[in-house]
């Protein structure tokens, strides 16, 4: 299963929420985006998603064969600053949000479409984010 | 065709109608479908929209166009299922 990476940096901070992101929050979020080749901002955790769209996205990444070692997930429900900040940073109003190699890829609908066309498989392969195939 | 559109409009919930009108005005869609799929609470919508304005744009940019038109509405919702096409 997916390695779970709980956003402790976020969880420890006070839940005070400003309308515009502080530079500290922005830094923490960019740090999170850089923390792995494949980064998912979601509601709940990969083991216990708390929204159907987040659940669908996690299972999609699993089906694609994303390597757990190259994957990090952040639970936006644990921190309101993260939840609002990531929306502002990506200019994207909904969760989940996927980043691959620090680039915003999209939300659930876009990932589903990209999976259908094979674009997602290619993207993840190019990013070397897939579990290496067994050599026999 | 007109009768069908009218009937569809009549069966809209007020929020569906608002969304439909905003998108129609801003994006001049060739085809548009707006459905409240929340099951009653009115905070989840499915939108399927075809517009010339999407031509040449990546899917993320197409979705961003729609998100921008609906930015005040999306804040109130739990979720949005969006499908955009340029033709």
UniProtKB/TrEMBL annotation, chain A:
<keyword id="KW-0676">Redox-active center</keyword>
<dbReference type="GO" id="GO:0015036">
    <property type="term" value="F:disulfide oxidoreductase activity"/>
</dbReference>
<keyword id="KW-0411">Iron-sulfur</keyword>
<comment type="similarity">
    <text>Belongs to the glutaredoxin family. Monothiol subfamily.</text>
</comment>
<keyword id="KW-0001">2Fe-2S</keyword>
<dbReference type="GO" id="GO:0044571">
    <property type="term" value="P:[2Fe-2S] cluster assembly"/>
</dbReference>
<dbReference type="InterPro" id="IPR002109">
    <property type="entry name" value="Glutaredoxin"/>
</dbReference>
<dbReference type="Pfam" id="PF00462">
    <property type="entry name" value="Glutaredoxin"/>
</dbReference>
<keyword id="KW-0408">Iron</keyword>
<dbReference type="GO" id="GO:0051537">
    <property type="term" value="F:2 iron, 2 sulfur cluster binding"/>
</dbReference>
<dbReference type="GO" id="GO:0005759">
    <property type="term" value="C:mitochondrial matrix"/>
</dbReference>
<feature type="binding site">
    <location>
        <position position="51"/>
    </location>
    <ligand>
        <name>[2Fe-2S] cluster</name>
    </ligand>
</feature>
<dbReference type="InterPro" id="IPR004480">
    <property type="entry name" value="Monothiol_GRX-rel"/>
</dbReference>
<protein>
    <recommendedName>
        <fullName>Glutaredoxin</fullName>
    </recommendedName>
</protein>
<feature type="domain" description="Glutaredoxin">
    <location>
        <begin position="38"/>
        <end position="105"/>
    </location>
</feature>
<keyword id="KW-0479">Metal-binding</keyword>
<dbReference type="InterPro" id="IPR033658">
    <property type="entry name" value="GRX_PICOT-like"/>
</dbReference>
<dbReference type="InterPro" id="IPR014434">
    <property type="entry name" value="Monothiol_GRX"/>
</dbReference>
<dbReference type="InterPro" id="IPR036249">
    <property type="entry name" value="Thioredoxin-like_sf"/>
</dbReference>
<dbReference type="GO" id="GO:0046872">
    <property type="term" value="F:metal ion binding"/>
</dbReference>
From TrEMBL, chain B:
<dbReference type="InterPro" id="IPR036065">
    <property type="entry name" value="BolA-like_sf"/>
</dbReference>
<dbReference type="InterPro" id="IPR052275">
    <property type="entry name" value="Mt_Fe-S_assembly_factor"/>
</dbReference>
<dbReference type="InterPro" id="IPR002634">
    <property type="entry name" value="BolA"/>
</dbReference>
<comment type="similarity">
    <text>Belongs to the BolA/IbaG family.</text>
</comment>
<dbReference type="GO" id="GO:0005759">
    <property type="term" value="C:mitochondrial matrix"/>
</dbReference>
<dbReference type="Pfam" id="PF01722">
    <property type="entry name" value="BolA"/>
</dbReference>
<protein>
    <submittedName>
        <fullName>LAQU0S01e15808g1_1</fullName>
    </submittedName>
</protein>
